[in-house]
Specification:
It is built from five helices and nine strands, in the order βββααβαβαββββα. It is an alpha+beta fold. It has a seven-stranded mixed beta sheet. The protein has a two-stranded antiparallel sheet with strand order 6-7.
C-alpha cells in the first residue's frame, strides 16, 4: 500500500478527466482536496462511495473541499458513470496507472481466492498547501463523507 504519510506533500497529478481536460493539483492551489481512489466505475462499492460524496458535495464544498475521483477507467466509462449517477465532480482517467502508482494505491488484491493487481480503495485529504492531512484506507463506502469530516 501507500508509503505516503500525513505531512508529506501530495505527488503532483498531470492527467485527464472525463472531458479530456488536463487536471493537475496546481489548479487547486489554495483549496483543500478530497482525492479518492476507487477500483472501478459502476461497481456496487464504488457507486456507493461516489454517490455518498455526491450527496454531500455541497457540504464538502462549504467546508472548503474540492472532490476528485481516480480510477483506471477510460474517459468514456467515467462519462457514463457521471451521467448515470449525476456526479458533480471530476473523475481522473488513469489508464496508464501513473497516478495510482505515484500515490502507492496500486497493489495486490484478493477476491474469491484469486489474486490480481488493482487499486486499493484509499482517500487522501490534501490541505490548501498541498500537504497530506489525512489518509483513509478503511473506507466506509456508504458513509465516506462522515469519515472525511471527522
Amino acid at each position: 500500500m501507500t508509503q505516503l504519510k500525513i505531512g508529506d506533500f501530495a505527488p503532483e497529478i498531470n492527467s485527464i478527466d472525463q472531458n479530456g481536460d488536463n487536471i493537475t493539483l496546481k489548479q487547486f492551489k489554495g483549496k483543500k482536496i478530497v482525492l479518492y481512489f476507487y477500483p472501478k466505475d459502476m461497481t456496487p462499492g464504488c457507486t456507493a462511495q461516489s454517490c455518498n460524496l455526491s450527496e454531500n458535495y455541497v457540504t464538502l464544498q462549504n467546508k472548503g473541499y474540492e472532490v476528485l475521483g481516480v480510477s483506471c477507467d477510460s474517459i468514456k466509462r467515467h462519462t457514463k458513470f457521471i451521467e448515470k449517477y449525476n456526479l458533480p465532480f471530476s473523475l481522473i482517467s488513469d489508464e496508464d496507472q501513473k497516478v495510482v502508482k505515484d500515490y502507492g494505491v496500486w497493489g495486490l488484491k484478493k477476491f474469491m481466492g484469486r489474486e490480481y493487481m488493482g487499486i486499493n480503495r484509499t482517500t487522501f485529504i490534501i490541505d490548501s498547501h498541498g500537504k497530506i492531512e489525512d489518509i483513509i484506507t478503511k473506507v466506509d463506502t456508504k458513509n465516506h463523507t462522515a469519515q472525511i469530516l471527522v
